[in-house]
Amino acid sequence: AQKITQTQPGMFVQEKEAVTLDCTYDTSDPSYGLFWYKQPSSGEMIFLIYQGSYDQQNATEGRYSLNFQKARKSANLVISASQLGDSAMYFCAMREGYRNKLVFGAGTILRVKS
Amino acid sequence: DGGITQSPKYLFRKEGQNVTLSCEQNLNHDAMYWYRQDPGQGLRLIYYSQIVNDFQKGDIAEGYSVSREKKESFPLTVTSAQKNPTAFYLCASRLGGVVLHTEAFFGQGTRLTVV
């Protein structure tokens, strides 16, 4: 069964605007962690933000924030004030329970327009 | 500098040959991972290891093998049984254990082309 679903294959956003990238997940374990990564065209994987299932507040890191809706099992990434350098592939990932298995979604390609 | 190193960056092999991709980390991480990425696609988990001398199959383990004899090293062998091995392979490591919130660090990847 698909554990991580990213339903937006591609997104466009105007420079300086905010954009939301969707991620839904499936787990029956009460303890889990959710991660977002950015992959530019160079292929490197850049860690952006983390949200734990027991965290009371939504995670934020600079221009990145995570809209965590536990009941809906969604962990959407919000990028504020988009920049041209934000153009990349974005992946949502989940680690379930205390296992170290880490699985990724299919990704969303974001293109920032000037 | 601590980090995770994959070698080589590009690899060409003839069909039917086994090939081994190297992954070394000096971060003292317990958990290590291998992912496969096809053009425009997501990362699919091949194998992962939580500790030395232990590893588990991921979602697409058929045609691949791994070993974890040392904490620092987690080589991946792409065997001739893998029907479509041409892809971008990424290795990653995490602190692991009971530390839940730590992110995975990735190598620069190996682009394997089978001709």
User: What is the approximate shape of chain A?
Assistant: globular
Helical segment tally of chain A? 0
Query: Major β-sheet of chain A, in short?
Result: 6 strands, mixed
What is the H/E order of chain A?
EEEEEEEEEEEE
Secondary-structure element order of chain B, N to C: EEEEEEEEEEE
The radius of gyration of chain A is 14 Å
Tell me about the biggest sheet of chain B? Answer: 7 strands, mixed
Rounded radius of gyration of chain B (Å): 13 Å
- Choose one word for the global shape of chain B: globular
Q: What proportion of the residues of chain B is helical, as a percent range? A: under 10%
Largest interface: A-B, 24 and 29 residues
Tell how many strands the DSSP assignment of chain A holds: 12
How far from one another are the termini of chain A? 39 Å
Compute the average pLDDT of chain A: 94
Decide which structural class fits the backbone of chain B.
Answer: mainly beta
What can be said about this structure in brief?
By secondary structure, chain A is mainly β.
